Amino acid sequence: MAATPIKPLMLLAIAFLASVCVSSRSDQENPFIFKSNRFQTLYENENGHIRLLQKFDKRSKIFENLQNYRLLEYKSKPHTLFLPQYTDADFILVVLSGKATLTVLKSNDRNSFNLERGDTIKLPAGTIAYLANRDDNEDLRVLDLAIPVNKPGQLQSFLLSGTQNQPSLLSGFSKNILEAAFNTNYEEIEKVLLEQQEQEPQHRRSLKDRRQEINEENVIVKVSREQIEELSKNAKSSSKKSVSSESGPFNLRSRNPIYSNKFGKFFEITPEKNQQLQDLDIFVNSVDIKEV
């Protein structure tokens, strides 16, 4: 009997399972469970990492309808910042653990949101955004379900800094907008983000070494408590009473669980209940399982 293709509506439920590390035997037997080694590390340093899961249809033929969907995992230590990125994909962002401040930039506007466990938000393709871990002690862990719009299945992001291996988009903004967006003076933005680099003789540093430095040092950076407080002080929080937000974050636990017993709880938000999910025909769920 031929395997039944998985519909996109079920995708984010599978995405949560993809973040679970299990035994090798379970990984081989269950196509819905992905071991950690099925993630490709895109960036990693002492502050955290960004990892990309292998394509779903590479895991099993039953996922052939999901070949245009990709899953990213972001993890960072307290008081760290993922530098601004522009991505040609629609995103469904879910906070798995920790506390974050998400800032979304537009040409003449900036919106910031304080996010906690269970908070979810859609970021349309072309969004410029950056994410900070605002907690003093706990690591931040976030999942992004990405649906590329220009090249199906191929996720391309642009780090908004003047590096050699990724285009810079910050130069398209005026000084006033940049200062308002980052809440700091332009000279500091140049120093930290635009990275006006001095030319060095080629023999002093190979291209490989330069790329290694960019990948490991300039994507996730340490920031001060004062900078975190400045980022988050005017940020909005998710709605705890409604899941029908049109553009802001909503929380998976804003309603009673669909199922609940002594072993755990199952929460779910369907496209019918949330406009952000309707466009992508995706539902979001979360499972709390107790140890036995």
Secondary structure blueprint with pairings:
Blueprint: H1 11-18, H2 24-29, E1 39-45, E2 48-53, H3 56-59, E3 70-76, E4 80-87, E5 89-97, E6 100-106, E7 109-115, E8 119-123, E9 128-133, E10 140-148, E11 157-159, H4 175-182, H5 186-194, H6 207-217, E12 220-222, H7 225-232, E13 236-237, E14 250-251, E15 259-261, E16 264-269, H8 275-278, E17 284-289
Parallel strand pairs: 7-13
Antiparallel strand pairs: 1-2, 2-3, 3-10, 4-9, 4-11, 4-12, 5-8, 5-10, 6-7, 6-9, 8-14, 15-16, 16-17
Feature tags:
disordered N terminus, 7-stranded antiparallel sheet, 7-stranded mixed sheet, Jelly Rolls, 33% strand, 292 residues, globular, alpha+beta
Explain what the structure shows:
Seed storage protein. The protein is an alpha+beta fold. The chain has one domain (8-198, 219-287): Jelly Rolls (Sandwich). It contains eight helices and 17 strands. The strands form three sheets. The protein has a seven-stranded antiparallel beta sheet with strand order 1-2-3-10-5-8-14, sandwiched between helices. Strands 4, 6, 7, 9, 11, 12 and 13 form a seven-stranded mixed beta sheet that branches. It has a three-stranded antiparallel beta sheet with strand order 15-16-17. Strand 1 and strand 2 (48-53) form a beta hairpin. It is globular. It starts with 10 loop residues before the first helix and ends with a strand. Mean pLDDT is 74; it is low at 1-11, 16-25, 162-167 and 196-216.
